[in-house]
Amino acid sequence: MSKAQAHLVKTPAASPTDTWPEPQPLPEELSPVKPFDKALLPATLQPWVADICERVQCPPDYVAVSVVASLAAVVGRKVAIRPQARTDWTVTVNQWALLIGRPGLLKSPAMEQALVMIKRLVARALEENERAAFDFQAQALAEKLRAEAREKQARKLLADNPQADVARLLSH
After folding, report:
1. Nearest to 62 by CA among 102, 32, 3
2. Last residue within a domain, chosen from 73, 93, 114
3. pLDDT single digits (tens) 107-133
4. How far is Cα 172 from Cα 168, in angstroms, rounded to an integer?
5. What's the pTM?
6. Same domain for 99 and 134?
7. Is residue 26 included in any domain, yes or no?
């Protein structure tokens, strides 16, 4: 069998008679990890993260991870890199974040505080979008009324003179 054909071989499915091992409880103790180094954050963000940690009384990891993920969301497709010099392959920002901790370690309050600024941006964008949608609907209605008025005027001209050129009125 060739290497090209090897991927076509199906793996046998588990049968109902296969036995699974008994689940084991997760260990109570945590694996040792280095404490979060605030120097990993840009200097402009460090005081903000420290302030949130002080107010919420939570680990800086939760706030820092949420802040970095929210910044990536704001940057979005505005920044990209081209890893290859001779192609147009472009890679845009894509940041995922996950907060892990036992219940009661203030993950949600830390994340909420870190996302306050992006939520303000979202609220402002929604307001601007509502205003723009209202303006668009008003403009669309005004154009519809203008078209109806031009049609009415064209009908009147044709009623008076069936040979009248009304194309100019209806072409707007």
Report:
1. 102
2. 114
3. 999 999 999 999 999 999 999 999 999
4. 7
5. 0.59
6. no
7. no
Two tokens, residue 62:
């939760």
Tokens of 42: 């840009």
Res 80 pLDDT > 90: no
pLDDT for 18-45, tens place per residue? Answer: 788 899 998 888 788 888 899 999 999 9
**DSSP per-residue string spanning the chain:** --HHHHTTSPPPPPPTT--PPPP-PPPSSPPP-PPP-GGGS-TTTHHHHHHHHHHHT--HHHHHHHHHHHHHHHHGGG-EE--STTS---EE----------TTS-HHHHHHHHTHHHHHHHHHHHHHHHHHHHHHHHHHHHHHHHHHHHHHHHHHHHHH-TT---HHHHT-
pLDDT at residue 3 greater than cutoff 70: no
Cα 73 to Cα 75: distance, rounded to the nearest angstrom: 6
pLDDT grade for 152, boundaries at 50, 70 and 90: very high
The parent domain of residue 82 ranges over 37-114
Number of C-beta neighbours around residue 60 at 10 A: 21
